[in-house]
Amino acid sequence: MDEKSQIQALDQSQPVLPMMPGVPERRSHDYVRAGNTTVLAALEAASGKVIRSLHRRHRAMEFKKFLARLDKEVPAGLGVYLILGNYTTHKTPAVGK
Prior knowledge:
Number of strands: 3
Order of helices and strands: EEEHH
Largest sheet: 3 strands, antiparallel
Low-confidence stretches: none
């Protein structure tokens, strides 16, 4: 399981011009900021399946929702092992319950 917070959601200010024979794809140099997002993801190593979710904020509440989603998607009877960093959202009383 991993999480990446404060990802800049960027978009090009102009449309990308497609490749043509002898001409590379062209993009504008500037971009438009569309806010931040947080990605939470878990990898099922045996099958390669990734369970992921996007959130506007990165708090214990969003982390707990992701854990609930994992609980729903993983078949009953299978053990789940999460390797987590020392991030604040992992250590709140709400997550420990």
